[in-house]
Amino acid sequence: MRFLGIGDYNDLGDMYRRLIAARHEVRVFVGDPEGHDVLGGLVPLVADWRHELDWVRAAGEDGIVLFEGADRGAVQDELRADGFNAIGGSAYGDRLENDRAFGQSVLREIGLRTAATHEFDDFSTAAAFVRTHPERYVFKLNGSGFASRHNYVGELPDGRDVLALLEMHRTRWPDMGQRPSFVLMRHVEGVEVGIGAYFDGERFLTPACLDWEHKRLFPGDLGELTGEMGTLVTYRGAERLFARTLAPMAERLRESGYVGYINLNTIVNVDGIWPLEFTCRFGYPGYAILEALHREGWAAILARMVRRSGGSGATFATHPGYAVGVVLTAPPFPYRAGYAELSKGMPILFREELSAAEREHLHYCEVAARGGDEADGLVASGVVGDLMIATGRGDTVETAQHAAYALARKVVVPNLRYRTDIADRFLREDREKLVRWGWL
Known about the structure:
By secondary structure, this protein is α+β, with helices and mostly antiparallel strands. It contains 15 helices and 20 strands.
């Protein structure tokens, strides 16, 4: 098969690397020049993805275009209309993820209760609102151009910390060059759990997955939001949550031409499900952590998503149990400033020779082959120090967690950093709550 990857930072680089190892043809477009060395020497880059479309078309049904972000949905719609197999999302999916108020309105339309959400384009107006309605809020920027570390989960019940944040942004925002667009969402207590599935343009593939993300930099959920520092996932037991959340989205996704992975992050408590936000693209690094539970390679799953064959085509084979993924980083992650001086180019070594099975569970992110040849070793590359993901699989959470950390400890990079508590909260309290409330 032939695959053309399109993104800004080679976020699906490890998927491309594995497709190449399975003897498929792969070409990748990386839009940001600072990301051109991501997976350097491991995946081939092209200068202009549009020039590669004839190469994809020549493969017929075996040609697939993969989109990484939620910012080129309209382009995907155009390609599908022109007969291409495009996987990633759609223009509708981009809006679901990037326009938070719109996403919440759609969730209400399918029958879910949502936390009170207020949309603003002015910090002074938002500050006045908080003063009038003091409460605990979550601040979230709209659009695909802002990393999650710009968002803020309020701590104080009267909203004083969010108010202080708004006042700071009011004085600094003009330097950022664009008018703000953001929401304030009422904070909801409970268990945070994501429900995800692949959609083939007509229906969801099964099984769906459940995930428990760990977004903050430090153990104990301290520090800034990073996007993701590690996740617990399973393809078992999602049926009830899926039926109440993503399943009712099928008609809307079908009408929009959506093809790709979609995830809904929620808070679950004694009162029910409170949806927070959509991810309308491949989860990163979630896709790599889920792969630890796949019995089939990516090519087989992606082919199902575009061929929409009957019968078994609506399912794919997965392992029972759980997978745990741990994100390995180097300073100044999650920030760009200073990366070239602090960590870029650092050697990536291993305490001992890894077995073939261990290498299958090590997923590369911002690394490159030294001198263009992996046999000469790996070095840190890219823009922020998001180096790789160590995964473990097991019939129980504990065995998956043990395997992931056993592998992580074999990686040696100067000043390597990762969380040491991925899945601990699930074991300590979240699982018991979800079982008591009838969701697991």
